Amino acid sequence: MIIQKEYKFYAAHRNEELDDKCSNLHGHRYGLRCFFEVKRSGALSTLFGDFDAKIDPYLKDQYDHGMLIHTGDSLYATLQDHMQRTGERFKLKVLDGPTSVENLAHKMFTEITEMGFRLQQLEVRETDTSVVTYTRDDWDEHNRDMAAEQAAATS
Questions:
Q1: Helix, strand, or coil here: 144?
Q2: Picking from 24-33, 37-46, 63-72, 141-150, which range would have the lowest pLDDT averaged per residue?
Q3: What does pLDDT average to over the chain?
Q4: Partners of residue 69 on adjacent β-strands
Q5: DSSP characters for 29-89?
Q6: Average pLDDT, stretch 66-95?
Q7: Is pLDDT above 70 for 45?
Q8: Does 80 have pLDDT greater than 80?
Q9: Residue 92 burial by Cβ neighbours in a 10 Å radius (0-12, 13-18, 19+)
Q10: Gap between the Cα atoms of 28 and 126, Å rounded
């Protein structure tokens, strides 16, 4: 059985690898649509509130009104230096790769799965007309590729 839940958060980002408007710092109202695989036992499977109790606070703490940033972005080092010098703190959600919606979908799929939920699919909406659909098969493939890359790097 599939239970579907939707969430929203606001975040800034830029994709420093692009040579267009997206290389500039800007923000989005991101939308998430989660498709959870659940097992029914008795009259119900999982309460909607069980998802909200973990995911809502996590999004507020880690993502909402923060900045998505890639460790390889030169702005990351600048912001780290600024925070160290001034004591000012920014909410930075650090990604291992560019802050594309595709990379964000992988990161969020991983994080929600680590909360103990089984996702079948995750849709990440960057704008009203731009959505990435990321499936369990995509996640499994990505993780296999990453494991193979790590194995090759250590041999």
A1: helix
A2: 37-46
A3: 93
A4: 94
A5: EEEEEEEEE---BTTBS--HHHHHHHHHHHHHHHTTTEEEEETTSHHHHHHHHHHHHH---
A6: 96
A7: no
A8: yes
A9: middle
A10: 6
Decide if 26 contacts 11 (C-beta within 8 A): no
| Bridge partners (DSSP) listed for residue 13 | 26
pTM of the predicted model as reported, rounded to 2 decimal places:
0.90
Residue 110: alpha-carbon gap to chain centroid: 8
d(CA 20, CA 89): 29
Q: Strand 66-70 to strand 92-95: parallel, antiparallel, or no bridges (unpaired)?
A: parallel
Is 113 in a helix, a strand, or coil? helix
Contacts of 73 (CB under 8 A, 6+ apart): 14, 16, 98, 99
Looking at the DSSP assignment, which residues form a beta bridge with residue 125?
A: 31, 131
Query: Could you tell me the end-to-end alpha-carbon distance of the chain, in angstroms, rounded to an integer?
Result: 42
Could you say which of 3.30.360.10, 3.40.50.300, 3.40.640.10, 3.30.479.10 is the CATH number of the domain covering 2-66+99-154?
A: 3.30.479.10
